[in-house]
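Example 3.2
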Amino acid sequence: MENLYDYQKFAVLYVDDEEMALKYFTRAFQNQFQIFTAANAKEGYQVLEQHCDKIALIMTDQRMPGEQGVQFLGRARQLHPRAIRILTTRTPTSKSQSTRSTQEPSTNI
């Protein structure tokens, strides 16, 4: 089947404090998408501002030093409201967040 989309014109911003996660994500998807990475929220905002016209998807880890992923995505939404946003995490940060996230949709992200 013919590919109807040129996915290389869409960029992904992946923000994670784990260097290996950034490395392997880039390796896995660099042939399909343009990948930008940042090691923290501050770097993520800089990349987003520099490449806002290219970034179609923003993905971040929840647990990072400094600003948490959900906070980053909330502000990123204000800067780039049309981008798709994905929050990743290995484990819930608290029981109340785990319960809330499965029962209530968040309006912040």
